[in-house]
């Protein structure tokens, strides 16, 4: 190996270490800040909420189980069997205790307890690569769980700190896209109770699909450091979980099912969703809402996360690609068809994903102009979209024949630019524009 290659590898490793340390510092500051803010508002907060779930009632059973499943990639098959069996036994025992003392039915403490024990045991008893692989995998599992706690803390904070919402502006702007929430509801309604149940599972159990894709990407890391992929789904998920919810405070929305139907519990503007198509209101205003409904629409994080699952599943076998496509379609259908989001929310979520993924994908290529132009462009497009919905909503609705195609064309151009930079053949026109390295392999070979 030449000195140049060795030096390049050392520089990359040093940069990666600095990035990891910086991420840990920023994450710790965010956790502490969120906990302080939550405590001041009388909320549980991410840190205390995580501690409580060791014995109290977990909010979601799928999140700790997904975290433990991701941690399993660092263990041998025998140790995976032992850990998963122990987690199941502990979960059942804790569930029995909850039922005896009259607590509600809930699962999730078992995997969290086993994940903690596994981390301590690996750090104390195992050595060399065996310990490193296990600890890194356990860290990813914990990070997934903590990220869920962070996101869950943001939601009640938005309701308490943003009493006014911008749903009237967003409803008007969505005329440019044909009011998709009203339209997609017709599709969901036609699916019947079985179809509705499936879509509800897809929407609510996003961690399960994340677990499957992440496990496949990281399945061989216990074999050696060289089997760690340079980029994987968990990284994208974590970054979006830390950044995305901040925009809830900037652009608070509750969604059409709450703002324009009886689900708003008296705070709704009207009762038109989903059966009466809205007309253009030339005087939209901010509307007051309750202090319980989360302002978690703009951007649509479910859209961003489902896109992440879809893109990262492209490098897997056929069944994984089908799973990614199914989860993306099901999630988009649920976000609109259940009235949780407007069409422009989904566009903003897509821009958020493209921005974060462009910043993280192919880290070995460094930070050239090819990457900077994507990250900056996608960030600007998301901010411009939010600004236009707030200040140009009426114009977007009145000139829907221009605004609608413009929004769709902009998103299409963004997807093409992303594809050209990270997927196109290096010798193709798109690949040359995207400055794809000549030695680049297909996505199927790299993730």
UniProtKB/TrEMBL annotation:
Its subcellular locations are: Membrane
Under the heading InterPro entries, the entry gives: Aur1/Ipt1, DUF5933, IPC_Synthase-Related
Membrane topology note: Multi-pass membrane protein
Q: Which residues form the DUF5933 domain?
A: 21-155
Show where the Inositolphosphotransferase Aur1/Ipt1 domain sits: 198-354
Q: Where are the transmembrane segments?
A: 20-38, 58-75, 82-101, 107-126, 133-155, 232-251, 319-336, 372-393, 399-422
Top-level taxon: Bacteria
Would you tell me the protein name for this molecule?
DUF5933 domain-containing protein
